[in-house]
Amino acid sequence: AGAVSFGSKLCHTVAPQAQAPAAEKLTIYFWTRILHSLPTHHFHHPFWSMAATATTRAMARLTLPVSTSSSSIGLDIARNNASNAMRRNFATSASPRSFVTRARPILSNQNCDLQRSFRRAYADVAPAPAKKPKRFRYFKFLWRLTYLSMIAGVAYLGYGVWELRHPEEQFEPDPNKKNLVILGTGWGAVSLLKKLDTSNYNVIVISPRNYFLFTPLLPSCTTGTVEHRSIMEPIRSITRHKQSAVKFYEAEATKIDPDRKVVAIGDNSDIKGATSTTEVAYDMLVVSVGAENATFGIPGVKEHSCFLKEIGDAQKIRTRIMDCVETATFKDQSSEEVERLLHMVVVGGGPTGVEFAGELQDFFDQDIKKWVPEISDKFKVTLIEALPNVLPMFSKQLIEYTESTFKEEKITIKTKTAVKKVTDKTVEAEFTGPDGKKTTEVMPYGLLVWATGNAVRPVVKDLMQSIPAQKDSRRGLAVNEYLVVQGTKDIWATGDCAVAGYAPTAQVAGQEGAFLARLFNTMAKSEAIEQEIHELSSSLNLKPGNAAEIANAIEAHEKQLRRIKDIKPFHYTHQGSLAYIGSERAVADISWLNGNFASGGGLTYLFWRSAYLSMCFSTRNRVLVIMDWLKSKAFGRDVSRE
What we know:
Keywords: FAD, Flavoprotein, Membrane, NAD, Oxidoreductase, Transit peptide, Transmembrane, Transmembrane helix
Strand order of the largest sheet: 5-2-1-9-21
GO molecular function, one term: NADH dehydrogenase (quinone) (non-electrogenic) activity
InterPro entries: FAD/NAD-bd_sf, FAD/NAD-binding_dom, NDH-2, NDH2-like_C
Low-confidence stretches: 10-20, 63-75, 85-109
EC number: 1.6.5.9
Number of strands: 25
Radius of gyration: 43 Å
CATH topology of the largest domain: FAD/NAD(P)-binding domain
Mean pLDDT: 83
Helix content: 40-55%
CATH architecture of the largest domain: 3-Layer(bba) Sandwich
CATH class of the largest domain: Alpha Beta
Number of domains: 3
Strand content: 15-25%
Organism: Hymenoscyphus albidus
C-alpha cells in the first residue's frame, strides 16, 4: 500500500509538463539508486516490484533542465538509466503475478519490464555466441554444394531439352560432293553419324527401322522394367542436328553392286506407294547392317523360339510371359501343365541371356507372386549354355559369383549342354558329363528364349559372293586394319557384319564407327588440301613474279597434308564388361590401368545403372529411363496384357 501511495504521489509530482522541485528530484534519484542496488530476485516481492514500476515511470517522464551541476548530472544519469532500462529486450526469468488494481493496471503489465530494468550491470553485455562444431559447418557446406549441384543439373537438363527441341538450320547437300551411303542405324552407323562432319559429304542413311535401339537395356523391356520407347532414339532427331542435311530412307537394302556402285533398296512397310523399289548410287559405302540370329540348323528353333535382338522380340516375349501366367491359372488346369507353362528356358549364357534370366526372376518374385500367389511355387527358370560356364568373357571369380547368385535365386544353370531339337512344348538337350559321357534330357517349357549366336544377313552374304577376296570368309565381311572390305576400295564395314578380329559387341561397333568418322573427316581435309596444292601449282606458271610465295605456300600445305594423312589403323580399347544378374546385383569387369578390376554386388548394380545411363544416346533417353526405373520401383511392373 505504501509503495502504491508513493508511486501515485511520485507520478503526480513529476507530470510531463511540470518542473519538479529539487528535493523531489533527489528523492527520485535516491529511490532509483536503492532499487538498482537490490539483487534481482528481490523484485519477485510485490512491494519492490510496484515501487520499481512507479520510479521507472517517473524517471521516464521527468524533464530536467540543462545544467552542469553535480546534482543535475546525477539526475540526468538516473533518468537515462531508467529510459534505457525500459528499452531492453533481453529476456529475464518469469516473475510471479503482481498485485493488480483497477486504478493501476500498468503495474501488472510492466512487471517483466521492471525485471529487465534493474538487472545487474554485467547482464547488459550479451554473451558471445558459442562456435558451432566443425561437423555442422561441414554439413552446411555439403548442403550448399548439394542444392547448387541440383540447380546446375536442372539448368543443364533444361538446356539439353531446349537444344533437342530447337534444331538449327541446315545446309543443303552439294551435288558436287561425294555421296556417302550408310546402311543401318545400329551402334556402328550411329557412332559414325554422330561424329561425322556431314558438310564434307552428301550423306544418305538407309535402314528398315527409323530409330536407334539401345540394346543393353533390351532385356529390361521384356518384363516392363523399362518401356521400349525409352530406349529408342528417332534417327531423324540425330540427322536433324547435323550441320549439313542428311537424307534418310526407311527401306531395306536388298543388293549391293560394287561394280556399278549402287545399292538396291525396297520399301518393307505395310503401306507402299507407287514406287517401292529403287537404287541409290554411292561414292563411299559403309555397311553396318548387323547380323541375324543363328539357329545352327537345329530343328524347331526358328519356329518355336523367341529371339532377343529387336524391339519386336521384346514385345513378343512380354506377351508370351503373360500368356503362360494366365493360361496356368485357367480353371481345372492340371498340375503337370501348370509346371510346363511356368517353366521358362533361356538358351545362351552370354550377357544377354544372363540379364534376361535375372530380369525374368525379378519380375516373378517382385510382382507376379503378389498378384497371382496361387502359382508362386511353380515358377522356374533354366539357363542352358554349351560352354563349361556362363559369362565366358568375365573373370573366374565373377563367374563363380554369378553362379552362386543364380543358385540363391533358384535359377537352374545347365552348362556343357547343347540343344538338339525344339518342339512347341519341349526342348531336347544333350548334357556332357565330366567323364565325357553324354546324356539326353527332354524338358517341357512354356517360354523358350534363344539368345546365342549371330548369322550373316542375306545382303551381306550376296556381297561376299560377288567379291573374290571374300570367298574364304564365313562369319561376315573380312576387313583390313582400316575397316576397308577386302577386295574393294570404297566399301567399309562395321559392327556384327564385319570380321575384324574382335568380339561382336556394341562396344566394338561403337569404336569402329567413331574411327570411321575420324577417317572420313581426315580424308575430306586431305582432299581439300590437295585441291589447294593443285591450284597453287597451276598459278605458279601464270604468276611467275610470286613464285617464291607460291612455293612456300605449297611446301606448307604439303607438310600439313603429311601430318593429316598420318592416320593410325583401328585399335580396339576394351573398357570392360557389365552384366545384371538379378536381385539388384550386377557384375563388372572393368579395365583399369594395365589390369582389370572385378566387382560384383549391390554397389556394382548402381554402377551398372549409372554406366548404362551415361551411354544412352540423348538427354531424352536418360530422362525416360530414369522415370521408368522410379516408376517400376514405386508402383511395380505392369502385369496387364498389351
